[in-house]
Amino acid sequence: MSFFKKIKFLTIYLISCFFINFFSISNLLASDFTLDLSVNEALKNSLELKSQHYKLEAIKYSLGEAYSSKDWSSSLSSTFNSSNKQSDRVGAYTNDDTTTSTISLSKNLFDGGESFERYRIAKDNIRLNELRLYKVEQDIILETIEAYLDVYTNQSVVRLRKRSLTRFKENVTATKLKLQAGTVTPTVLAEAEAKLAKANYELILAEGNLNKSVSKFKSVTNFKSIPHNLKLPILKFQIPETELDIIKISSQKNINILIAKLERDLAEKNIDLEKSDNRPNFKIEFFAKDSQSSLNSSASDYQSYGANLTFSTPLFYNESSKNSIRRLDKLAMASSINLSEQLRQVELNAISSFQNYQSAVAKTIASMSEEKSSLLALEGIQKEAEFGIRTVLDVLDAEVDYLNASANLITSEADEIYEMFYIKSIMGNLSQNEFTGENQINFNQKNKKLDFKIFDLKMFN
Predict the structure, then answer these.
(1) CA 59 to CA 127: how far, in whole Å?
(2) N or C: which end of the chain has fewer CB within 10 A?
(3) Concatenated DSSP letters for 191-239?
(4) How far apart are CA 328 and CA 320, in angstroms?
(5) 368-394 pLDDT per residue, tens
(6) Residues 31-37: contacts with CB under 8 Å, at least 24 apart
(7) How far apart are CA 38 and CA 51, in angstroms?
(8) Beta-bridge partners for 82
(9) Residue 43 near residue 437, CB atoms below 8 Å
(10) Distance between CA atoms of residues 261 and 263, nearest Å
(11) Which helix (H) or strand (E) holds 282?
(12) Confidence (pLDDT) at 414
């Protein structure tokens, strides 16, 4: 074998290996492309979810802030006083420059229950933000499921429309040949071309719907490309058999209801926090003072240290405190009413979603029957066409009916799956744990290097 033949053979071998590997990788990616993967990628790339994670991390610091009223506080103060004094025995004025410096360290031993109330509020706020995080996660999951099923449905419909268009093109070509042979009339060709135009329009419409669903799916998941044969997901759970069971579970675990309950509790605790401002408190303070005068013989020079114990209590509620408590009380009443409204809405959504699910199941059963009947009708018309009883157009129309029935079945099955996921979300059980893959998403939150220096350039602003 010559050198050039060896080079040619090697080139062909490498190219063939490349295409074999390429197609094998493509098939692997297509087979591994599932709803679970889509949901995990959507959650991982969601900026809204990432933002909510930062909010949750931020609110966790409120636990450390809760005891601020009982925390140690320190201060260093220095006062310079310049005065001119006239002594009774001396007629002239004498300049006296006095510098007084004080270092103090103080702490509230009792703060009227303020730190206790703030701690309770902080814990509820953390739980509230956790629920809001779950709510965002749940909304993203539902949006991803809907986008995935839309792509699956439209891909299936496009394949059916392409098959139908191909059959009508073949019929038009065959009819033109028959017209040239004189076996059919121009009217038959016109009918075939009209059927072809309709099939082409339906394909264009289906491809437009597919392009829109693909764009939304890519936006949600941040995928650059997706395979052309998504599979219908297989569910690993079942929903309750009656709407009463769904209502019962939803009233206890629905995220909106849990959020409304926490908001009501927080409103009531804010009232107790406001009342703590009008309760007695007890404070201890340690101090050290130094006072120096410019006079040579000043009896006011001294150094001292010691401790102060201070008990203070308001004598009555002033009008501003009363109005603050009244305002918070009205907000608590509003949150209680909002909880009742959430209970009503969740109950209505539970009933509606269960009815939608039942309708989807009934539609799936009817579509199965329709597909089976249209297939039997197609087979019968094909046999009749063999004996000249039916025309080719009759066969094609029967094929269109069968394809439409198949498209209806695909759509109804996708609707049934979505409604099951939606019911799960109404019951508060829809989370990332339902899908395989990572159960915890690490967003690699960045922490800025904060400056806790007391003295900085901004003090001169």
Answers:
(1) 10
(2) C
(3) HHHHHHHHHHHHHHHHHHHHHHHHHHHHHHH--S---S-PPPPPP----
(4) 12
(5) 999 999 989 988 988 888 888 888 888
(6) 33/226, 33/227, 33/230, 34/231, 34/233, 35/144, 35/145, 35/148, 35/233, 35/435, 36/233, 36/435, 36/436, 36/437, 37/437
(7) 20
(8) 97
(9) no
(10) 5
(11) strand 281-293
(12) 94
Record the tokens describing residue 54, joined without a space.
């930062």
Per-residue pLDDT of 222-255, as tens digits, reads 998 888 888 998 888 899 989 999 999 999 999 9
So what's the pLDDT on residue 366?
A: 94
Q: Is 283 exposed, middle or buried (0-12, 13-18, 19+ CB in 10 A)?
A: middle
Secondary element (H or E) of residue 308? strand 302-312
CA distance 403 to 174: 22
- Position 21 scores a pLDDT of 46
- In the prediction, which pLDDT does 439 show? 54
Question: Which is nearest to 33 in space by CA: 236, 235, 232?
Answer: 232
Question: Starting from the edge strand earliest in sequence, which strands make up the sheet with 93-110, in order?
Answer: 73-86, 93-110, 281-293, 302-312
Distance of alpha carbon 418 from alpha carbon 365, whole angstroms: 16
Which domains are assigned to the chain?
33-66+113-279+320-434 (1.20.1600.10), 73-110+282-313 (2.20.200)
The DSSP 8-state label assigned to residue 290 in this structure reads: E
DSSP assignment letter at 281 = E
Torsion of CA 351, 354, 358, 361, to 10 degrees: 160
Cβ-proximal residues to 295 (8 Å cutoff; 6+ apart), any chain: 94, 96
Q: Where are the beta strands (DSSP E) in 59-156?
A: 73-86, 93-110
Cβ-contact 262, 135 below 8 angstroms: no
Q: Which stretch of 49-63, 181-195, 349-363 has the lowest confidence by average pLDDT?
A: 181-195
Residue carrying structure tokens 């929903």? 239
Between strands 93-110 and 73-86, the pairing is antiparallel
| Report for 36-45, 176-185, 254-263, 391-400: range of highest mean pLDDT | 254-263
Q: Phi and psi at residue 155, in whole multiples of 5°?
A: -60, -45
Six-digit token string for 250: 């939803």
